[in-house]
């Protein structure tokens, strides 16, 4: 069990290290961070695909339909995608060019695959050796670390606290969904849609409007998390 925790921390550290190196190279060499971060995630993507393919862990990490074919499991995803689509209320950014959109689509696809495979694939399976509850909370805490570092980048305290809290709550939601459906695919799709929409929506929004919108999204996520928790934890608090 201790080895599983240590391995989970090491995997998280290596993920952060690769991303940090990408950012450092950008600063030192004067290269656009979009390029270095894209390369960093691309390297992680290639490593993960090669490793999982060699180990034949695709099904083990949830790259299958699992129980998702059950209509009841399809319906539980509705609030998740509502959370992802809600920011569209503010409208799209008018500053984006075709090249920007293409970059966003490819980059966010890499981010979604890499982060979900690491946190809701590898780390979740490691921590499930103790219990599902431990795995859910553990992966969510580790997943929130990079978001904490990102949120502390000169933002208002209210926005920072909200962003960190949302990362923790959404981490719990995604972990529960994967345990319940045994499928990581839909979660990757959500991650891609959520990040893409966040990147293409207008940034010229009143600060109070932005705060209220983020608060609404967080409250929906919180209620959704409690609902999912009620579905899985009392019945299956420990992994089989």
**3D shape:** globular
Question: Level of helix content?
Answer: over 70%
Would you count the extended β strands for me?
Answer: 0
Q: What portion of the residues fall into strands of 2 or more residues? A: under 5%
Number of domains: 1
Distance between the termini: 15 Å
Q: Biggest β-sheet, characterized? A: none
Name the poorly predicted regions. 236-240
Structural Rg: 18 Å
- Element order, helices and strands? HHHHHHHHH
Mean pLDDT: 88
Counting DSSP H or I runs of 4 or more residues, the number of helices is 9
Structural class: mainly alpha
Protein model, in words:
- The protein has 240 residues and is mainly alpha-helical.
- The protein has one domain.
- Helix content is 75%, strand content 0%.
- The chain contains 9 helices and no strands.
- The longest helix is centred in the middle third of the chain and has 30 residues.
- The C terminus is likely disordered.
């Amino acid at each position: 069990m201790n080895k599983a925790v240590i391995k989970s921390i090491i995997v998280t550290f290596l993920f952060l290290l690769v991303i940090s190196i990408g950012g450092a190279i950008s600063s030192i060499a004067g290269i656009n961070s979009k390029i270095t971060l894209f390369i960093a995630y691309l390297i992680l993507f290639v490593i993960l695909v090669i490793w999982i393919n060699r180990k034949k862990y695709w099904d083990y990490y949830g790259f299958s339909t699992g129980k998702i074919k059950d209509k009841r499991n399809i319906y539980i995803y509705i609030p998740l995608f509502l959370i992802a689509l809600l920011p569209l209320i503010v409208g799209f950014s008018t500053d984006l060019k075709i090249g920007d959109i293409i970059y966003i689509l490819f980059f966010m696809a890499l981010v979604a695959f890499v982060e979900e495979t690491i946190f809701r694939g590898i780390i979740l399976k490691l921590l499930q050796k103790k219990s599902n509850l431990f795995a859910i909370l553990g992966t969510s805490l580790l997943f929130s670390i990079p978001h904490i570092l990102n949120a502390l980048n000169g933002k208002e305290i209210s926005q920072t606290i909200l962003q960190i809290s949302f990362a923790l709550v959404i981490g719990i939601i995604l972990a529960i969904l994967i345990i319940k459906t045994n499928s990581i695919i839909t979660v990757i799709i959500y991650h891609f849609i959520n990040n893409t929409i966040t990147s293409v929506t207008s940034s010229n929004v009143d600060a109070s409007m932005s705060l209220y919108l983020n608060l609404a999204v967080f409250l929906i996520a919180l209620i959704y998390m409690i609902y999912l928790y009620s579905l899985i934890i009392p019945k299956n608090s420990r992994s089989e």
